[in-house]
Design a protein that fits this description.
Helix content: 25-40%
Radius of gyration: 20 Å
Number of helices: 12
Strand content: 15-25%
Order of helices and strands: EHEHEHEHEHEHEHHHEHHEH
Structural class: alpha/beta
InterPro entries: DNA_methylase_N6_adenine_CS, N5-glutamine_MTase, SAM-dependent_MTases_sf
GO molecular function: methyltransferase activity; nucleic acid binding
Distance between the termini: 30 Å
Number of strands: 9
Oligomer: single chain
CATH superfamily: Vaccinia Virus protein VP39
Shape: globular
Number of domains: 1
CATH class: Alpha Beta
Largest sheet: 9 strands, mixed
């Protein structure tokens, strides 16, 4: 099958960098809340962060932790590239922990990966992190705002502005002295507030990944609530909705975000604080320009209009065809045959 229409001009499809998902084919198991788009962005940020650690220390990374690990895609993926790397994962869901352990066995990494039943808000988390002394922590938590009167298992207590989990991950990592962090969040969940929280916790944004996509079942259902939030950035323009969802089903577009962060104390430069502020400015400009200008804002900020001193921005688009392609990359080709349907 071929793409029925050209990808959005000026932006690469996220599906063009989906190779990290190809390793995770059945019998690897995904959980109920797995989404290939944000998982892939977090995996890209994590790969970059591990490589940056290796460059800075002239040695391969030794320890990786994934918080809110789910199926452990992000924790297990780098083990193929880095033979000396060990991985740990933690999740508040006991079923997810069991699934991650099975997945480690499926991939042949059971001896190099360990998983714990531990949530972001567990008081033991900072101590648990310190004991493992990770070179890099990765976290792809729930980050969609949760209407106070309509709790939803999909966002699992993300809070009314959606930033509760990313900010908690930053706090735990700072307390544990984690030197590098790959963190996911989104434009609906106080994106600028999360970037500011990272800077306040002593982290500098080293690189940023973003992907524009249309609302899904839950985000679309929360549309009315999201429109009331000054910290939610979404684009309802017809041009963006048509580009992301030619089927006409989109209510709005929004941005997934994944950042590679380094501890400011490890930035060997007198302008570490200014670099931290530049990262916050990049996130703020990105989400505000997206609301104002739509998809072209991503291409211009990643290219000729990149803010001075800002970290690199890697921008992608996910349209309906890309959504299908990413799921095929993760789940593998369809086997067997479809049943025939006869007219009655």
């Amino acid at each position: 099958m071929a793409r029925p229409a050209p990808a959005t001009a000026g932006l690469r499809s996220l599906a063009t960098v989906a190779a990290p998902l190809a390793r995770f084919r059945p019998p690897f198991e995904f959980g109920d809340f797995f989404a290939p788009e944000d998982t892939l962005l977090c995996a890209l940020a994590t790969a970059h962060t591990l490589a940056r650690h290796a460059d800075a220390h002239d040695a391969p990374p030794a320890r990786l932790v994934e918080l809110t690990c789910g199926s452990a895609v992000v924790a297990l993926g780098p083990l193929d590239r880095w033979p000396a790397l060990r991985a740990w994962g933690a999740d508040v869901d006991a079923d997810a922990v069991s699934r991650a352990r099975r997945n480690a066995r499926v991939l042949g990494h059971a001896e190099r990966a360990r998983f714990a039943h531990l949530g972001l808000f567990d008081a033991r988390l900072p101590r648990w992190l310190r004991r493992r002394a990770p070179d890099v922590v990765a976290c792809n938590p729930p980050y969609v705002p949760e209407p106070p009167d309509a709790p939803n298992a999909l966002v699992a207590g993300a809070g009314p502005d959606g930033a509760r989990h990313p900010k908690r991950a930053l706090a735990a990592c700072a307390r544990a002295g984690v030197p590098r962090l790959a963190l996911s969040w989104c434009s609906l969940g106080d994106p600028v507030g999360v970037a500011r929280a990272a800077a306040r916790r002593g982290y500098v944004l080293d690189a940023l990944w973003t992907a524009a996509l249309a609302d899904g079942e839950y985000t679309g259902g929360a549309h009315a609530y999201l429109r009331t939030l000054p910290t939610a950035f979404l684009d309802e323009s017809a041009a963006t909705r048509h580009a992301l969802a030619p089927d006409g089903a989109a209510r709005f577009g929004y941005l997934l975000l994944a950042g590679s962060f380094v501890r400011a104390a490890d930035v060997h430069s007198p302008d570490a604080r200014e670099r931290a502020r530049a990262g916050v400015r990049l996130v703020a400009r990105l989400v505000r320009r997206f609301v104002r200008d739509g998809l072209p804002a991503l291409a211009t900020l990643a290219g000729r209009e990149a803010p001075a001193g800002a970290p690199p921005l890697h921008a992608y688009v996910v349209d309906r065809w890309d959504e299908l392609s990413l799921r095929a990359a993760a789940h593998g080709p369809v086997s067997g045959s479809l049943p025939s349907i006869s007219a009655s």
